[in-house]
Write a structure and sequence with these properties.
Elements (H helix, E strand, L loop, with lengths): L3 H17 L3 H28 L4 H39 L12 H9 L4 H8 L2 H17 L4 H20 L4 H8 L3 H15 L1 H7 L2 H27 L4 H36 L1 H7 L1 H19 L21
Helix pairs in contact: 1-12, 2-3, 2-12, 3-4, 3-5, 3-8, 3-12, 6-7, 8-9, 10-14, 11-12, 12-13, 13-14
Length: about 325
Amino acid sequence: MDRLPFTILVMQKAVKMVWEIRAASRVSYIFSALLLLWITLWSFGVSGVVASGIGDGGRWWLLLVFSISLFWTGAILCNLVHVTIAGVIVLVLAHNGQDAPPMPSRPLLRSLRHAISTSLGSICYGSLFTAAIRTLRWAIRGLRSRIGNNECLLCCVDFLFNLVETLVRFFNKYAYVEVAVYGKSFNCSARDAWELFQSTGIEALVAYDLSGAVLLMAVILGGLVTGSCVGIWTWFKRRDRFVMVGSTSMILGMILVGMSLVVVESAITSIYICYAVDPSLISKWDAEFADQIAETLHQRLQHRSGRDIPAHMVGVQLPNPAPEMV
């Protein structure tokens, strides 16, 4: 519960940042429509496989391939939105202030063109792994926190956790911001983002933030509301289709709500990356928010190290170039 005030603060600032970029929501709407179109085509393909005369073994393999294609395509479309919004936000922050260079024309269109051309390969590659590894990391972290005095089980879980942490270094959502800004490959971006977080101490702040869990709960809630409303309607119209229609509606609701919330998640990740690269980028946009981040970071580093850390050392880092769109 002590993490909620900071989480709420970060999410409020992320929503404010997205709200200032009026066209950001349009990107999520466009890609939501594309995702619905893909789901429609996918449904026809699955129906054809089910109705075909292929044997059960071949049918299950085809359904597995179709399932992977659905989740992979959904992840690619979400990450395209993520990279587009992150590129725009970094541009806005980098060109904010009196001494900053002028903003390039049509920044959203420029970022979108960069995402679907230069960065498309990195996005497709990263989309295969990031969601699965993030979910596995949360599950292992929750399991480790519930283990009591069983040293053997704790040792095994710690080994799995360290293994997943190693994978996170190469597959994390913050890599997409580096992909959007610098145009690097996905693995290089993930490694650089993780090293940047560790060298500046921002990793302690990221671990303290619960915004990812809050957004996940919002996605689940959206799916439950959609599934419940459609399921109740189906119960009175076609009771024999109640389970199928209700569960399908719940999945579609989760997908659409998740696509809408990608813009908020992208803003949050961009805030952390920009603060790690150069805290003045956030300070020029909102000085009070930058001070609150610095104060919370100081507290978390104190808690993690168990010793006092001078406040002026928070945010000290190796020189990095100012973010610039490729």
